[in-house]
Input
Amino acid sequence: MKHKKDGKGGFITTTFNSMLGWGRKFSLFQYPFITACCGMEYMSVACAHYDLDRFGMGWTRFTPRQADMLLVVGTITHKEAPVLKTVYDQMTEPKWVVAFGACAVSGGIYDNYAVVQGIDRIIPVDVYIPGCPPRPETIINALIKLQEKIQKEGHEWRFQKRKS
Amino acid sequence: MAISKEKVLEDLKQKFSDNILEITAQFGDDIICIKKEALLDIVNFLREEPYAFTMLLDLTCVDYMGEEERFEMVYHLFSLSNKLRLRFKTRLSEDDCKIDSLTPIFKNANWLEREAYDMFGVHFEGHPYLRRLFMYDGFEGHPLRKDYPLHKHQPKIPLRK
Output
C-alpha cells in the first residue's frame, strides 16, 4: 500500500493508521531504567496493587531492544548519561520516553555538579511525570495520556527510512 | 579488662605531648587535634593493645575556605574490645595539601582516601592507587571545594538544546 499523509489518503489509510495506533497503545513493552527511590513507586504501579497490565503495559522487558517505552525512573548523573543515551539508541522505532519523577524531569532537588538537569538534555521525552515520588495514580494518568498520544500519532517514521 | 577513655587520653597526652594541640569533647565524643606529621605514629600507637582501636569508621575532609590552614582532615576510630570512640582532626594548608595515607594500617582507608582526593584534592602520600572514586576521568577540579562554581557542569556527552 502506498503511503500518503494523514487526511489526504482517504478512508483506508486513516483507518489503517488508527488501527495501528490502537494496536500499539495497548501493547507497550516497557524498559524501566531505574536509578533511585522512584523505583519503589514504579514497582507498586507495575505489580498487583495498581496493575499496569489493565492498561496494556504489563510486559517489562529487561533489554532495550525489545522495548517500546523507556521509563527513566530516578536521578540521572553526568556519569550515567552516556549509559542512558546508549540504551535509548538501542531501542527500535517506534519508541517513547517517559520522564518519571522530579529528578528525571528537571534534576529535582539536586541542582549541583553531578546531576543532569532533566533527561531532556540527553534524549527526547514524550511524557513528564512530576512528583517526588509521583503517586501511582499520577503515573497511570500519565501513561494513559501517552496512549492517547500514540493513538493520534502518524506513522511516517515507517516510511522515512526508505527515503534516506 | 577494658580500658577507660580517660586512661587512653592520658596516655596519649604523655606520649605525644609535642604533637597534640588540643583535646576537646562534643556530644560525648572526644576530639583530638594533632599535627599532621604525627598522624601515622598516633594511629599505630592506638591500634596496639591495650587500646585496640582496630576499626577506622570514617575519614573525611572539611573545607574552611579563607582560613590559613584551609582543609581539616577528620578521622574516626573505634575500639571494638573497649567500646571507645575517638575523633582526630588535623589541618592542611592549600599549598601543602598532603598527608600520610592510612592504607598501610587500615584497608578501608583506600576508598575513603580516594573519595577525599576526588572531592577535595587532598593528596595521600603512600596510597597505592590514588584515582578519582565518584567523578569520572576527565572531570576537572574538586567539586566539594568551596570555590568550585555552584552551577558548573562538566557533561560527558554533548547536551541537547
